[in-house]
């Protein structure tokens, strides 16, 4: 395609002379399967033609060394649809070339684009491997397994670097330190991503997972590959990553929602470790925000428990976790009389009323002095002798009910006023003031103080009263306009009758 004198001109691409390809590649171009169909598809030929000459030469060199073993092998590599730079990496990596050749490697050691079809190891998915964040940064097999990409044979270093197969699958405690060889080395990591932290191992060692794995030798405990995977590791921003914000609940749930895997674990009080957290979270306000609405700012498991330093939040830290988002409510609670009571009872501040994994959107129905409300039920058990507690809860509930029901009534009137063609701006402005007062009043509940609550609820009551006045005024104006309209219609009717009589009189006189 060229542009000449501002005119777009399409020029057909010149046919590629495949006879100029590296000689070792040429037999692959026409090789056929048993049924007579060519191994290389039209898409494969087009992909080869689009490669830079030096990349085709690298493939030719690999074919010459029989590391690119067949037309089928070439088809597999081209089907990955890699960028030329990535093809260059593959063509110069003897580990990948050897282990992706179905004519050379069988069974569990074969890198395959479809492990299920090839009956190979599911962890050796070639499509996943070439999408791995390590591969994309130039780190391939030898980075973890040892040896060099240019080695013709597997070296002794590979066997020395890894525990024996039966050992490494039974005892997984070697994995964190193995990954940390790179990820805990600031100098090394600076060459790839200077923003990545290098304290993950130190944090993990202090986590509950780390303590169970490294100190108690419990290989059921999660470690690096449990969450990040093996050959298909992606960065957390990728939606295919197992640690993408929206996939973290399922990643954690792979263990924590599995009753068989969690069997035998107990809570500090000796009760069996629950496995319904994922189910509860999905129904919670946080779960719906993250998983259904796509709000990536909503907390998932790691938002409260941490990632590499994952621990059950202690009572003292629960409120600090919640305050990362709900800072105002936390500050209001700090100045309340409940703060001292919660500390005396060792209650988690936010969790005592709102719960943890199954947190629902709070409603005014939680508040009040009647049985079944959160306040009343707690006061019966812990503050029966303090009449102020229930009185305060009753004031809160009555005030909120009045404001909320008034708001519903006024909102309906706004629509009616608009339908009548009247000016709704003053009423809408007053409604906004009422909405703001409701938000602030519901937040001030965390002070558990009537005076502080009244300071923000009173403007709401005033806005509600003003709204009623505006509604009354709009009704009066509508009645005035209606009467005026009827008067105008009546007057126009009289004029019309008068004109009709005058016309009839004129016609009579003309006839006479």
If you had to describe this structure to a student in words, what would you say it looks like?
With 512 residues, the protein is mainly alpha-helical. It folds into 4 domains: 17-153, no CATH class; 174-181 and 197-296, no CATH class; 313-360, no CATH class; 362-477, no CATH class. The chain has 30 helices and 2 strands. Strands 1-2 form a two-stranded antiparallel sheet. Strand 1 (2-4) and strand 2 (7-9) form a beta hairpin. The termini are far apart. Residues 1-12 have low confidence and may be disordered.
Write a concise synopsis of the structure shown:
By secondary structure, the chain is mainly α. Helix content is 58%, strand content 1%. A two-stranded antiparallel sheet has the order 1-2.
Judged by helices, strands and strand pairing, the structural class is: mainly alpha
If strands are numbered along the chain, what order do they take across the biggest sheet? 1-2
Q: Count the E strands.
A: 2
The residue fraction in helices comes out at 55-70%
Show unreliable segments.
1-12
Per DSSP, the total helix count is: 30
Mean model confidence by pLDDT: 90
Total number of domains: 4
The termini sit apart by 94 Å
Radius of gyration: 37 Å
Q: What kind of sheet is the major sheet?
A: 2 strands, antiparallel
The percentage of residues in β strands lies in under 5%
| Tertiary shape | flat
């Amino acid at each position: 395609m060229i542009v000449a004198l501002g005119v777009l001109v399409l020029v057909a691409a010149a046919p590629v002379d495949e006879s100029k390809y590296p000689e070792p590649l040429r037999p692959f171009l026409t090789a056929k399967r048993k049924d007579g169909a060519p191994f290389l598809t039209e898409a494969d030929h087009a992909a080869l033609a689009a490669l830079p000459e030096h990349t085709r030469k690298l493939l030719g060199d690999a074919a010459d060394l029989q590391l690119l073993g067949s037309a089928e092998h070439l088809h597999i590599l081209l089907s990955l649809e890699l960028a030329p730079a990535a093809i260059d990496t593959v063509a110069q990596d003897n580990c990948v070339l050897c282990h992706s050749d179905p004519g050379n490697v069988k069974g569990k050691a074969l890198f395959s684009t479809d492990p299920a079809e090839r009956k190979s190891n599911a962890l050796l998915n070639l499509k996943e491997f070439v999408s791995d964040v390590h591969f994309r940064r130039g780190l391939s097999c030898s980075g973890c397994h040892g040896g060099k990409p240019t080695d013709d044979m597997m070296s002794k270093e590979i066997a020395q670097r890894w525990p024996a197969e039966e050992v490494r699958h039974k005892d997984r405690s070697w994995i964190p330190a193995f990954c940390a060889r790179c990820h805990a080395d600031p100098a090394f990591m600076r060459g790839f991503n200077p923003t990545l932290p290098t304290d993950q191992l130190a944090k993990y060692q202090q986590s509950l997972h780390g303590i169970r794995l490294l100190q108690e030798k419990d290989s059921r405990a999660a470690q690096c590959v449990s969450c990040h995977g093996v050959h298909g590791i992606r960065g957390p921003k990728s939606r295919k990553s197992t640690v993408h914000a929206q996939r973290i609940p399922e990643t954690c749930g792979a263990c924590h929602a599995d009753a068989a895997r969690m069997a035998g674990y107990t809570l500090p009080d000796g009760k069996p470790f629950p496995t319904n957290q994922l189910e509860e979270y999905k129904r919670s306000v946080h779960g719906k925000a993250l998983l259904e609405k796509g709000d990536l700012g909503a907390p998932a498991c790691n938002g409260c428990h941490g990632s590499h330093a994952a621990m059950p939040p202690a009572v003292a830290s629960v409120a600090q976790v919640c305050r990362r988002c709900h800072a105002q409510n936390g500050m209001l609670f700090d100045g309340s009389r409940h703060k001292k009571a919660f500390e005396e009872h060792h209650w988690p501040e936010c969790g005592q009323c709102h719960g943890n994994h199954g947190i629902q959107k709070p409603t005014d129905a939680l508040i009040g002095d009647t049985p079944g409300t959160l306040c009343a039920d707690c006061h019966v058990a812990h503050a029966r002798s303090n009449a102020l507690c229930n009185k305060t809860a009753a004031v809160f509930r009555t005030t909120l009910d009045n404001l909320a029901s008034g708001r519903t009534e006024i909102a309906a009137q706004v629509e009616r006023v608009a339908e009548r063609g009247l000016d709704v701006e003053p009423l809408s402005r007053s409604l906004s003031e009422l909405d703001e007062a409701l938000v602030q009043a519901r937040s001030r509940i965390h002070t558990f103080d009537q005076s502080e609550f009244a300071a923000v609820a009173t403007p709401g009551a005033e806005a509600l009263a003003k709204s009623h006045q505006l509604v009354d005024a709009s009704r009066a104006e509508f009645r005035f306009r209606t009467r005026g309209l009827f008067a105008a219609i009546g007057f126009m009717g009289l004029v019309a009758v008068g004109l009709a009589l005058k016309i009839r009189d004129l016609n009579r006189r003309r006839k006479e």
